[in-house]
Amino acid sequence: xxxxxxxxxxxxxxxxxxxxxxxxxxxxxxxxxxxxxxxxxxxxxxxxxxxxxxxxxxxxxxxxxxxxxxxxxxxxxxxxxxxxxxxxxxxxxxxxxxxxxxxxxxxxxxxxxxxxxxxxxxxxxxxxxxxxxxxxxxxxxxxxxxxxxxxxxxxxxxxxxxxxxxxxxxxxxxxxxxxxxxxxxxxxxxxxxxxxxxxxxxxxxxxxxxxxxxxxxxxxxxxxxxxxxxxxxxxxxxxxxxxxxxxxxxxxxxxxxxxxxxxxxxxxxxxxxxxxxxxxxxxxxxxxxxxxxxxxxxxxxxxxxxxxxxxxxxxxxxxxxxxxxxxxxxxxxxxxxxxxxxxxxxxxxxxxxxxxxxxxxxxxxxxxxxxxxxxxxxxxxxxxxxxxxxxxxxxxxxxxxxxxxxxxxxxxxxxxxxxxxxxxxxxxxxxxxxxxxxxxxxxxxxxxxxxxxxxxxxxxxxxxxxxxxxxxxxxxxxxxxxxxxxxxxxxxxxxxxxxxxxxxxxxxxxxxxxxxxxxxxxxxxxxxxxxxxxxxxxxxxxxxxxxxxxxxxxxxxxxxxxxxxxxxxx
Length: 570
Hints:
Blueprint: H1 2-15, H2 22-29, E1 36-38, H3 45-53, E2 61-62, H4 63-68, H5 81-85, E3 106-109, E4 112-115, H6 117-120, E5 122-127, E6 130-135, H7 143-159, H8 161-172, H9 178-201, E7 212-213, H10 215-226, E8 240-241, E9 253-254, E10 260-261, H11 266-277, E11 288-289, E12 293-294, H12 303-313, H13 330-343, E13 363-366, H14 367-370, H15 375-382, E14 384-386, E15 406-408, H16 409-422, H17 425-438, E16 448-450, E17 453-456, H18 463-466, E18 468-471, H19 492-495, E19 505-508, E20 513-514, E21 519-520, E22 529-532, E23 548-549, E24 553-554, H20 557-567
Parallel strand pairs: 1-6
Antiparallel strand pairs: 2-4, 3-4, 5-6, 7-8, 9-10, 11-12, 13-18, 14-15, 16-17, 19-22, 20-21, 23-24
């Protein structure tokens, strides 16, 4: 009976996931880009324009194919700006950086379409008639739905002679040679096969929905693909929210599980890993310079641009509650601050959000302590695969344990990252200098444990240290919903309730902001995604410590609202 119930839940979720943000498009989501309000975050218009469209090395597919394919069920183009809104992408302006007027986070390089950090880390809220853009915030993008739509459009184009003829004329014009036609067909079939294989390998039983992606799973599966072994992949079934990225360069450790150090070459390595997972091309065969110098793995990854993006993010400030929002009740917020100091500050420390020299020492909570959904942390450590061409090679490309025939998938990705960095020696050295300038010490120290909970973690990477989730400062947290690492709690108010009292399911897919409970509105609309917390990877349990003893001394409703009011000030 249990499995039947889960099957029904999955079917309902899929049916409700039909045409994302359709009602928003009809309800003025197709607004002119000039109607946007940008919050003061220490970035100029030119800063954000550069960040939105800089190439980081992602190579999704040839742009001439993407630009000219029709939607699967009609003759309108898939690339139409209003159609792309339904996947959660944000409208962009036509400019020198964006000559094709592509959405935020779309890149063009060498006639290839790609994505960059801004696609996942640029946020938009709607309040009355205002659309509020938040740089570095959590995207509403549903990447899986977008990639599925590309495959469907390409497949129907190939299967429908009239569709394909229209596509071919758009690409080649009315007059073209037979050889041009054959070359285009071959290229089209090749990229359709790539997209189909990618979607097959990254398919999961539980849909991610808006604002989430199993980025670690996608990166690990890309490593297993490059190993060259057939059907070498794992289900990426632990989606997490796109985290807000202000203060990321100032942390000693980043990622939800605190797995990546910013010391030494860590920041560049982390960003290289991200591009590997988001359609970067890597040739995992060692290149030789002058016949004997190890040149690492050639790739499309733009290491200099990644360094520049990291430095740009280092200048970003978290957003403040906008002045045109309802005023914060300062008396209530003051009472909330007292509660925050007593129950939250031990993990979520205070920082000066505008201090150029701010440094953040990561604090972690073990899975046993925090009790939230464990799958992201577990998958990152325990998912394995065949090493294929990487068997017999060191884990970190030139150093580390020699890999056998079957290893954690993370080890293979570590080797690929090392190979790409070796192929970029100058940028790698400069990345180490960047880290030193940011003040990240290159020292090894053990984590500190209190009653089994990691309070501060060191630079060593052990299974115990990584089976945990990071607690970061909460400046800008008012814009961070849905909450918990997997986006399973819709608003700040519910985050402060016992898990048993939190909503078991809710809708996500509107940019409309809930100013009371603080999060996106939970409202069924055409195209909304139905989030079911009882499915694997979606648990909304945990994070109950530090918010009162619910058996003997629970927070009153008044205290919860005071805490919510205070967190609006952060």
